[in-house]
Structure formats: C-alpha cells, structure tokens
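Cont'd.
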Amino acid sequence: MTDEVIEFDLPIEADHVNRFAAAVGDEYNPIYFDPQATQEMGFPGPLAPPTFGVTQIFQVPRDERESKLGANLDYGRVLHGEQEFVITRLPLVGETLKGRMRIAKDFEKEGKRGGTMRFVTYETKFTDIDGDEVMTAYYTLLQTAKDVG
Amino acid sequence: MSENRIDTNRIFPQRLTLDGVTPGMDFEEVVFGPLTRDDFVRYAEASGDDNPIHQDEEYARSQGAPTVFAMGMLNAGFLATALGHWVGGPQHIRRFKTRFTNRVWAGDELVCSGKVVSIEDGLIKISLEARRRGEGPEGLGLDDEQSAIVGEADVELPAD
C-alpha cells in the first residue's frame, strides 16, 4: 500500500448533471435542474445526484490511478465489489469540488473455493472551495483468486 | 428512448418526516426497465465508465461473459433514485452503500426495494435491495429473479 494521493478538480456542470440524472432514471426530478424549485427548498440552486461522484473517472482514468497509486491489480480478474458514499451535502451545480484520492484499505482473504482474493478500497474525499467536506466516495475492487484448476 | 424514468409527481408526491417513519416499514417497490443496451451506453457517456465489457458484445465474450451487462453503478444509480423518492428527495441521503452480487442483463427489469431497519440519533437506517427480473441471456438457465445489489443507507429527515 502506498501513501500517494491524487489531487484533482471535479466540476459539477449543469449539462453533465442532467445527463447523469437521466441515465439513472431521475430526469424529471426538479432538484437536478430547476433553479426556482431548489431555491424554494432552501438550496442556492440545482444539485447533483448522490452517486455523481463516480464521474471522477473522467478526471482520474484507471491507468492514471494505477500508475500513481500503484495497487498492481490484475484487471483480468477484477470486479467492482462495493461502493459507498458518505454525503455531507449533495454537490451544487456550478461549483468545482476538490478531490483527494488514496488507497484506504488493501487486504487479502481466502476465497471460498481456494486461492486468495484481494480487496482494494480507493477513498476520495471531496471538499468545496472553502475546504469544507462535501462527500467521500469509497470504491472497492475485488480481485478474484487465480484459477487453481 | 428508455422507459426507465420515475415521474416524480406521480409516484412519491409526499414529503416524508421523521414522525412518519417506523422501524420495519417497507417502501413501495420501484421497477426500472426492462433495461436496454442504450441504457448502458447512456450511462457510460454520463458516468465515464467506458469499460467495453458493458457495450461491446465481442469484447464481453473475450472476457468470458456471455454478453454485455449493466455497470454495477448504473444499477446502484437506479436504486439511489428509488431511495431518493422514498424519502422525499435525494438531499436527505447521508450515506449510501452497495455491494454487487449478480450481474444485470439487457432485457432485465430492476426491482428496487427498501425497508426501515432502525432510527438511531435521528438517522433513519434503511436496508436496500435491487433484484434483476427476467430470463437472462440464453443458455445460462438463470433464475427469473436474483438479488443483484444489497445495500444500506442513512437518511436524515426533517422532524416535522
């Protein structure tokens, strides 16, 4: 496990939020696009969906993540095992978040059918322009055991 | 175009408050789909997950999959959409965790369900599940219905 950290910007853009909301079946929800409705709810404007943090892959593609954080995973046998978001507040359309990505956990476990499975959790903390916490994403990859047969 | 949309005004018009929630309470199932390959493409473009295993039939086969399948986070995104509507809006979600247990295929419906587990320090603890429902790819002999995601969420609601 390395101590490396990748820092990047995550812009929250209106068109992108609309396309993302549509892709997850929520395009008619005014919270994602309607300035007046969101202001009446007490927000400065439209928000991004709770899972929008996955779009960090646009800013930090897999190859960059791997070369900088160096988990040395064998992607031929890697699955997305788990995903977690801890949300202080939903991102606001128009702001740019600061992301800090690192490997938070890296451990091995015996597989049910023999061999060793490995779990790697990438943690990304997102903060706003004031440095306040917005949300944290935990992206856990599971490397399955090598074929023993 | 996809049919996978929630009409906010039609399905969950009510505002939910802490008083309106009790442990053991089930939310009304939300069904998305049947999912199409266009849904996978649209999510790839919006999310940045351009792994060809979700879009390119030949590539998927070369990786040992019978055909393309949905990204886990697309299914989780639908589940988060359902959760947001159950609790009166996504702005109330404080934590959302998902574990991926089975693949979801084009042609499947995604059946989202949720249950209030407990209320702790004003946070509503909710257990979540998304099940795939459909025949699945030919020749796999899959059950018609399988758990695809299990998850949990913490939700913070206004007191009244």
